[in-house]
Design a protein that fits this description.
This protein has 234 residues and is an alpha/beta fold. It has one domain: Aldolase class I (TIM Barrel), CATH 3.20.20. The chain contains seven helices and nine strands; from the N terminus they run βββαβαβαβαβαβαβα. The protein has helices spanning 55-66, 86-98, 114-117, 138-148, 161-176, 199-211, 222-227, and strands spanning 3-13, 23-29, 52-54, 72-76, 102-107, 122-126, 152-158, 184-189, 217-218. A nine-stranded mixed sheet has the order 3-1-2-4-5-6-7-8-9. It starts with a strand and ends in a 7-residue tail after the last helix.
């Protein structure tokens, strides 16, 4: 029997990136060893067997929430691409595809997993900025874009000018390789602990984008505007 470590399965409106505003079912994996210091879901880090669910249980939750009206699933975490998750993740994706779901996967930007990326419909690929204290290799990013730019977005969380400049450096590196890609690069102004809405930071990110020639889309986190920075399953 296929089992998965699943933190939660819930229905919500996409709150960030180029699909903002689209209702979908979120399947959130439990377990992550990446360790972004500004992660807003640190409760998903532990590989706790108490979160074990069968594939049938997960699919039942998806179908109940879908009500045959929502045929989009976003797989997130935690880190769904951790090597220990891959076998069960592939079985989940195959079952979702068999039931005609559109599948997005949230990828941490630390690895390219061909056997997963080939199966899904869309990949939200993180570029890890300095404030996360995790590094995304520019060479790995280039490899990812060579194969998957036709069905992907690059997302970066921006806390300050250093984060912006790091993202711009990666963007410029990709352009310097003469790669023909129309992939969207999305900047997300980060929320610091206790902030209700980072208005000044949002404005600063917009201004930096203008100063650097408007290479990026600046898209905030809608779910945090609507429900606050701490609510879950929204």
């Amino acid at each position: 029997m296929t089992t998965l470590l699943i933190n939660s399965v819930y229905r919500a409106t996409e709150g960030e990136g180029i699909h903002i505003g689209i209702p979908q079912i979120f399947v959130r994996f439990q377990g992550c060893h990446i360790g972004c210091v500004n992660c807003d879901t640190k409760e998903t880090w532990d590989f706790d067997p108490a979160f074990t669910k069968s594939l049938d249980e997960v699919m039942e939750s998806v179908e109940v929430l879908s009500q045959d009206l929502i045929k989009r699933v976003s797989i997130t975490g935690g880190d769904p691409l951790h090597p220990s998750h891959i076998p069960s993740l592939i079985e989940l994706i195959k079952e979702l595809k068999a039931r005609n779901y559109f599948i997005n996967i949230e990828a941490a930007g630390t690895r390219v997993v061909k056997e997963v990326f080939d199966l899904v419909d869309f990949i939200s690929y993180d570029f890890k900025t300095p404030s996360t204290q995790v590094k995304t290799s520019k060479e790995l990013l280039l490899k990812f874009l060579e194969d998957y730019s036709h069905k992907a977005q690059i997302k970066a969380v921006i806390a300050d000018k250093k984060d912006f400049e790091s993202t711009y450096d990666a963007f410029h590196f990709v352009k310097s390789q003469k790669m023909e890609t129309q992939v969207a690069w999305c900047l997300t102004p980060c929320y610091e602990p206790g902030e209700v809405f980072p208005m000044n930071r949002f404005q600063q990110v917009i201004q930096m984008n203008e100063a650097f020639g408007l290479p990026f889309r600046v898209i905030g986190q809608q779910h945090k505007w609507a429900y606050g920075p701490s609510d879950r399953l929204v």
